[in-house]
Amino acid sequence: MEYRLLGRSGVKVAPLGLGTGNFADPTSEDESARIIHRAMDAGINLIDTSNSYSEGESERFIGRALASSGRRHEVILATKAFYQVGAGPNDADLSRLHLIRACEDSLRRLQTDYIDLYQMHRPSPTVPVDETLRALTDLVQQGKVRYIGSSVHPAWKIMEAIMVSEIKGYARFVCEQPPYNLLDRRIENETVPMCQAYGLGLITWSPLAQGVLAGRYASATDLPDDSRGALRGGIYSERITRPGIEVGNKMISLAREHGIAPAQLATLWVKDQPGITAPLIGPRTLEQLEHLLPVLDMTLSEELAAACDGLVAPGSAVASFFNSATWMKQRLI
Q1: Of 272, 59, 48, which is closest to residue 175 (Cα–Cα)?
Q2: What is the pTM of this model?
């Protein structure tokens, strides 16, 4: 397996990362620990979470699993801050007050002295980027954070942050974490070329399009009771569209024609796209993890890449995975 540099940092990560959005909701702590340790045994060294996942329980699960095994030093541990985590008016957003407090809380839950990658979960509509970057720079200088990044930011906001960091000598974003799959390819228009030009890594989420590309849904209205779309509703059910399911069915047929499992092809497609550092896989079970691990050593052929382009044109979308981003006014293009 070939490890990839995370942006222009010297950090090397596996071509797949472990996303933990299912930990504690619905995955149990024992199963979560098994997933973590099996992923690490397979060579995956990036574990991504957030202080908002399951009200901090995802971080606690990870912290206990790594502490009990003594393997904290083997992983690049990434978490995020932005969303509301308390009842107070300053328990959210990207202010200095909130970020320093949120970082300390994450450190306690993760049972670690430092966070390898601290990401801003969404851009702030009100807090000046100077304030955010100054606070993050202080956390880096204190040794509590090693690297910083963004998540679901428009290209111009990332570029603004890079500019301010360069001018003022602040810590610089090393990566962006947007949604990316065959159903929503819009990052190819601006975010991917911008990251390639300025040396940022791309850690992407939802390579299976929330299961649509794995055949999870037969209908956009009649959702399986145990699916994420049914259990969580809201933005999750909005991502399941009739055009998306139609493309998913075609991709499933394409995968079977080439002797590849649909979930593997969907993940492989993201992994081998230009500019991508690593897609995050978010298994609910150890079995799901085992199913995707072979992708670490697979390579997408030119024939398959061209066939996938024929299903959804580069830069376009048939379902919106940016529907949790308030800045994305135009949902589909």
Answers
A1: 48
A2: 0.95
